[in-house]
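Predict the assembly for these two chains.
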Amino acid sequence: DAGITQSPRHKVTETGTPVTLRCHQTENHRYMYWYRQDPGHGLRLIHYSYGVKDTDKGEVSDGYSVSRSKTEDFLLTLESATSSQTSVYFCAISEKGGYTFGSGTRLTVV
Amino acid sequence: QKEVEQNSGPLSVPEGAIASLNCTYSDRGSQSFFWYRQYSGKSPELIMFIYSNGDKEDGRFTAQLNKASQYVSLLIRDSQPSDSATYLCAVNYDMRFGAGTRLTVKP
């Protein structure tokens, strides 16, 4: 078990407000990822990290930023939330030949 | 053209039948292929991965890879209602996902 937890599990926020989602892992994995999942689109990579302070963009990074100041924590920030960012967000780590996902955060922007 | 394509379904099979899920990919240089299962409201979980042409079996699941035709498939034998879920195909270690195929197994 990768010991990966996401918080919060659910959040409703207003358009234009900043939002930060947290991913925490307990097993010192180097690579961490943020995905969003929307109907008809599957999972799309937002950003990923390959070490402390080492991050890179994925295919849908516009409007998102990330930070990784400690190995165990990978934060995803929506600087100014928009309705198009309403989605389910999954954090993942790389292990056992594939990815292990957190339980997800359901974000609604109203 | 999407990099990884799956039939969105829904695919419905009777209990005990073989369910066949297919995935095609556009990058001919792809080397690794993954199948995930996702129950409604839950996170994806890895079922199998395959790197070489041919078949790879794990219990009731068989992954089949044909690099020349650029497709990978997942067969589920003796399908059970508990197999009802969305199945996601992913390609390469940077995990390009298909949109998933929803499978329903009817008792």
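The CA atoms of residues 10 and 93 of chain A lie 21 Å apart. Chain A has a mean pLDDT of 94.
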